[in-house]
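We modelled the chain as a single entity of 446 amino acids. Its sequence is:
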Amino acid sequence: MKKRINRQLMVISSMAVAIMLLLMTAVFYHIFRGQVMDDLRLYAYAVAESIEAEEKLGSGYFYSRRDKENERSVRATIISPEGAVLYDSNADTGDMDNHAGRPEVRDALQNGEGSSIRQSSTMKMNTYYYTLLLEDGNVLRVARESHSIWNILYSSVPAIVAAVCALLVLCMMLSRRFTKSLLQPVEQLAADMDCMENHTVYEELIPFAETIRKQHDAILDSANMRQEFSANVSHELKTPLTAISGYSELIENGMASGKDAVRFAAEIHKNAKRLLTLIDDTIRLSELDAPDLEIPMEDLNLYDIVSDSVEMMQMRAEERKVHLTVEGSDCIIRGDKQMIEELVYNLCDNAICYNNVNGTVHVSVECEDDNVVLRVKDTGIGIPETCQERVFERFYRVDKSRSKSTGGTGLGLAIVKHIVTAHHAELTLESIPGEGTDIRVIFSRI
């Protein structure tokens, strides 16, 4: 990233230097050209005043002044209104063509004065002309040669190259320093994101940093949950496997016979069944955790599903000496039938398992405005307020001894929460220890 920023800054700096040099050259040349033309104008007026004062063509004013090195100087020419050259300080008038078509002469005849610039064929020199209409109708033209912009640029190449190199070196040093100072807050933030308040952070980076930190915390939480889940699974699997291994070893060594063998076999069967249930629930939870989980939605009559599920669980309720009832009306929701059946089963099974002898479990389905409410209310042992937020966690049990005696895996309500989330429903829980629990699942009504 640093190299990329440095490169971009150097490109921008180089372009800025080049453009600035070209603009400065153009501006200075424009000023220089204006200065040359102003000098010619002053010279023309001086000559014209002298001519008018003496009423004659004073040759002392029109000769070509040259220095010792024969450099070109100002040239004076008198031109008639018809374009004939009457006098020229640098050439024989007899060899000169008609000047009526020259733009500076036309301008002087029409406007009283004129000017033009003509470039030589080699593009090294420019000739500047300034014309002034005299009182007698003739045109006074003064001219001077000067270097063109290309000649000036060419002669300035060594100085320009040296200046550009110096500027680029300076820009390179400044860009590196600027890049370092620009990225320093980002590097500090990356090194210690948990303590943003201790560093100077760009205001624009705060939302980004907060998002990264939340994602980081979420990843850590997820890793901790997975680690805890793995530990819990290992622990839960170890208990029935230990029992199965112990009872089977007793039978294998001939230490159990008759009724003991039957009892040991029953224990092996119970723990194997619990093991299978635990494995099934774990696999099901992993399936619900999948990010690409696709749910085949369809219109479902929630009351019909609840009625069928309650009917199937009547025998389990009777074994626990719990009275299970259902009431409600036809309510249509959008969902996956298998998941909804699983949801109802887990809620009812939990309400039965953690109930009291001769207790009740009442299941209802009601349509309320734009919602459909599934309600499972029991008269069981209840959940302490400190535990109510955690009952939907995996393997969390309010009463661990009772859960193991009933064969619970501690995953039922975790599965319920995943199914509710997958259906974009809402889950509420109210419970009073010793009085019972009231769970509601609120679906959107079709």
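As a brief sanity check on the tokenised model: The longest strand covers residues 125-133. The radius of gyration is 51 Å.
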